[in-house]
Design brief:
- The chain is α/β, with parallel strands linked by helices.
- It contains eleven helices and six strands.
- 24% of the residues are buried.
């Protein structure tokens, strides 16, 4: 789901309707004034002539047209054809070219988001985000994924995950995903700086949500915790510790204790 698509679609519909209505009023006004000036017609008769000309219904003329009046009528017909061509083209593009279907799909997704509670928000769909979503899917825990790389979203389209296309550090996106109703948010963005910013934003939006974050550098663990993260994960160090323990044939029962000591040494 592209967060601004619904708003953009509505804006295009309103713009198309406003332009079409404006052109129609201008056409009616132009024609009415033209018949009044050219044929010295009563305003209602002039309006009647414009309507039957624009609608091409073929009723009888109430004004005896001069040569100038006939020329003006031909101009009105050309303008009328141009107007209807414009209006039909614009509206058919919006409603018949897959745009309206996409809008309905996005509206349905928006309703799903508005009704979600106790869900998990995964920010970033890299290897870690993919692994987290797989576990949550197995456990039947509802979740939303925020990812700005459209190719990653397309690659996993068949999974029917709820994707929000955009930058997770954008406050507009944070407001739409129902963070006040979520139970957890996971910051798995590529850089520690982005994760710090996201953690700060999440903490500002909700005091009850549990915040998890990944870190690439052990030196940034304390920064993330100071920003508001409840748990900070170092994926590379977890993998390294596991392999190291296997090589050394030792068991590490408490990885949190291990990483706390590791960070302190750093």
């Amino acid at each position: 789901m592209k967060i601004n698509y619904i708003k953009d679609f509505r804006t295009r519909i309103y713009k198309t309707l406003l332009v079409s209505i404006g052109l129609f009023i201008a056409l009616i006004s132009f024609g009415t004034i033209g018949y009044i000036l050219i044929e010295d017609a009563y305003w209602f008769d002039a309006l009647y002539m414009v309507i039957i000309t624009a609608s091409t219904v073929g009723f009888y003329e109430v004004i005896d047209l001069s040569t100038a009046g006939r020329v003006f009528t031909m101009v009105m017909i050309v303008f009328n054809l141009a107007f209807f061509t414009y209006a039909i083209t614009k509206l058919s593009t919006l409603f018949l070219d897959g745009e309206f279907r996409k809008y309905l799909k996005q509206r349905k997704m928006e309703n799903v988001l508005n009704n979600m509670t106790d869900h998990v928000i995964i920010c970033g769909f890299g290897r870690l985000g993919h692994a987290i979503s797989s576990v949550l899917e197995q456990q039947k825990i509802p979740f939303i994924i925020i990812e700005k790389d459209i190719e990653k979203i397309r690659m996993h389209k068949e999974r029917n995950y709820i994707f929000i296309e955009g930058n997770a550090t954008n406050d507009e996106i944070i407001d739409v995903i129902g963070i006040e109703r979520a139970k957890a948010i996971v910051a798995t963005l590529p850089s520690d700086a982005e994760n710090v910013f996201l953690v700060l934003s999440a903490k500002e939006k909700s005091n009850t949500i549990t915040i998890y974050s990944r870190a690439s550098d052990p030196e940034n663990v304390n920064k993330l915790k100071m920003a508001g993260a409840h748990e900070v994960i170092l994926p590379e160090y977890i993998g390294g510790a596991y392999i190291g323990s296997k090589i050394a044939s030792t068991e590490i029962e408490d990885y949190n204790h291990f990483f706390n000591n590791l960070v302190k040494k750093k």
